[in-house]
Design goal:
Radius of gyration: 13 Å
Distance between the termini: 19 Å
Strand content: 5-15%
Length: about 70
């Protein structure tokens, strides 16, 4: 995850907003609409019900995306 603003790392952990942006490959300053679109597109690629042959890795990625979005 690349951090595009100063202060993105706090106490050894990434700011949750910056972490979310890195997960969806977005830049700082992305609006809510861009985050929602990136989330939907990412989830479609690894959703267990939408993937013909879900793998444990894709299922884990889906759970990670879902938790990050919440």
């Amino acid at each position: 995850v690349s951090v595009h603003r100063a202060g993105g790392i706090k106490g050894g952990r990434l700011d949750p907003y910056v972490e979310l942006l890195g997960l969806f490959d977005l830049r700082v300053g992305a609006d809510l609409h861009a985050i929602k679109v990136a989330f939907r597109n990412s989830v479609k690629e690894c959703h267990p019900d939408l993937t013909p042959n879900p793998t444990p890795e894709k299922t884990a990625k889906f759970i990670e995306l879902k938790e990050a979005y919440e």
